[in-house]
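Milestone M4 deliverable, item 7.
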Amino acid sequence: MIHIKHVLRYATSSLAIVLTLAFVSGCASSTAERYGVVEQQAMSSGFSVVRFGSNPPLVGMLRTSKNVATSPAKNSQTLWIMIEGDGRAWLNTREPSRDPTPVDAAGWRLAQNISRANVLYLARPCQYLSSAEMDTCVVSDWTNARFSEKWVGRMNVAIDDAKRTAQSKQIVVAGYSGGGVMAALIAARRDDVVMLITVASPLDHAAWTTHHGVSPLTGSLSVLSVKEKLIRLPQIHVTGADDKVVPTMLMQDFLRGYPADAPAELMTLPGIDHRMQTAIDISRIRSSRLLSQSIDDRDTYP
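Output delivered:
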């Protein structure tokens, strides 16, 4: 059975949002300044900057059991991955941004809150790049083709590299907003994923663009096309009750396409909007049906 929970312990006061396809709001600083803030936060919390590939590179932050004083038996088997959202992809509903680096990196906040040793934060394509590196990007990389085969494939390879570095055997793949779409597409093509977690994610992006009356993501892959491969994968989908960008009803509609016994759970956070400005440790989300004693205590599955 698909479970729907209303999680009261995460309730906070509602925050007003401005709807844009960037999924963020606020005054933008320069990319260099935003990257500098993330880099400083990474250094103070045991993460190291990692870059995958070139033309353009993918930027990430990686923390492994070598960098934190925890018991290897509790933390070394699983790599927890958080994929960033679409960032500042659009300036408004008609005008794309020239740089998709997030103004408010909600995915990075979520990654820092993961209380496990092996954690990879993976920025989306063309985020946190220099001007020269941005010259190898095109606008479609963060607009209509944001979930293209090119980028799903490249992010999947980056995860392989990080997994080898962390010497992990399995992964939990998670994503915020559009990063959850990317996480689902990646999970569908791997055999080492033990859990899929999405946060405020429009998994059926066609339904999402229809809901907002905007152009479809014509250059992107669809999670609906790989849904059969995801049905038996344990998964938790977190939404905010006050999210007007990705309303909970869109996730409910997506999950109705699963069989009744699918190991999928929807958790709705009262008082939370799309920015997810509340402390959530996705590695401590508890479900007696989905999270076994082994992943709670030893980060391994039987």
